[in-house]
Amino acid sequence: MSRHCLCMMLLVFSLRLPASSTQAAADRQVAITIDDLPGIGAESMTAAALTEMTSKILAALRQDNAPAVGFVNEVKLYKRGEVDARMQALNLWLDSGFELGNHTFKHTSLNRSGLEAWEDDVIQGEPVIRMLLAQHKMKLRYFRHPYLDTGADLETRRKAEAFLSRRGYLVAPVTVDAWDWNFAGVYEDAKKRGDNNLLEEVVRLFLSYHDAVFAYCEQLSRDVVGYEPRQVLLLHGSQLEADHLRELLQLIRKRGYRFITLEQALLDPAYSLPDTYVSIEGRGWLEHWAITKGKPPQGAPEFPPQIAERTKALRGY
Ligand SMILES: [Zn+2]
Question: Is 100 part of any domain?
């Protein structure tokens, strides 16, 4: 065999090897979850606007065959003269073949409100979604912790888990969270003011930050779990998602993901890993597992400071 021939063979062989970790894990899987339904800022929106926003989010999910579970704060349904219309906007999720879960009645933090007040808010958050699910021959089975606050001490955390289990809930974990809510307020404000330059900037940063957070979570997964488990992405019902979820889903597909149900994601053995994480600050499950192992995660991508600054200014702090 000539030297040239050997070189060619080596070249061909090396071309067939994965060039990066992105290609190495070709069968990535992610479940989509969308919190704070019927949507961020729903209190100040009309039922018609909520219906339109919901329809756009659902159309984007359907176009990409992405299953999703939406997590509801029922307090947002109670606006005088609009309760029925708001319930119907929520019902679109189930009519479109998606699932709904409980996110407490008024978004109560377990860590900041204490166990009893939080338990009351979980119970108060059930009746409408339970009824709507029953009308679609489905049962209420998922709970998502507001702020991902799972308990500030281990006793509270375990008591809360036992309470949720007794009421028939599975806790919906999160492994990928790029704080879309933080972009959403800036986006809505720019849209109201007709600031097209800022709108473009927000969307560009929203997409690039999600890409960076996915890359970080994939690396953290390999470091902590030993492989990339079926991920669970946290998003929020918002005008930003209504207008740009399609682009986000395409970006996720480009990273090699296919979309699966939350039920399929939770079959991954990673979700049975030891988890003793407790803190006043809620965090994602990859961080739970890393900290439980005594390996606090490093190198998270910085949230775009220009968006953080604008969010602070909008909220007046
Ligand atoms: Zn929430």
Answer: yes
Residue 11 belongs to a domain: no
> What was the pLDDT predicted at 19?
39
Confidence at 14, pLDDT banded by 50, 70, 90: very low
Region 90-105: mean pLDDT is 98
Within a domain: residue 127? yes
Residues, the chain: 317
CA distance 122 to 125: 5
pTM over 0.85: yes
Using the 8-state DSSP alphabet, how is residue 57 labeled? H
For the record, the structure tokens of 146 come out as 């507001």
Specify whether the CB–CB gap between 121 and 108 falls below 8 A.
Answer: yes
Q: Is 249 contained in some domain?
A: yes
- Number of structural domains (the chain) is 1
Instruction: Show the domain range for 232.
Output: 31-315
CA of 121 relative to ligand 1 center, distance in Å: 13
Is pLDDT above 50 for 4? no
Q: Report the CATH number that the domain containing residue 113 is assigned in CATH.
A: 3.20.20.370
- Distance (angstroms) between ligand 1 centre and the Cα of 73 equals 8
Give me ligand 1 centre to Cα 106, in Å.
Answer: 9
- Convert the pLDDT of each residue in 18-37 to its tens digit: 434 444 446 899 999 999 99
Q: What is the mean pLDDT of residues 130-139?
A: 98
Residue 104 near residue 142, CB atoms below 8 Å: no
Is 104:117 a contact under the CB 8 Å cutoff? Answer: no
Residue-wise pLDDT for 281-317, tens only, equals 999 999 999 999 999 999 999 999 999 999 999 988 7
Cα 98 to middle of ligand 1, angstroms: 18
186 Cα to the center of ligand 1, angstroms: 17
Exposed, middle or buried by CB within 10 Å (0-12, 13-18, 19+), for 206?
buried
C-alpha span between 248 and 171 (Å, rounded): 25
* Distance between Cα 171 and ligand 1 center (Å): 14
> How far is the C-alpha of 69 from the C-alpha of 285, rounded, in Å?
18
Ligand 1 centroid – CA 103 distance (Å): 7
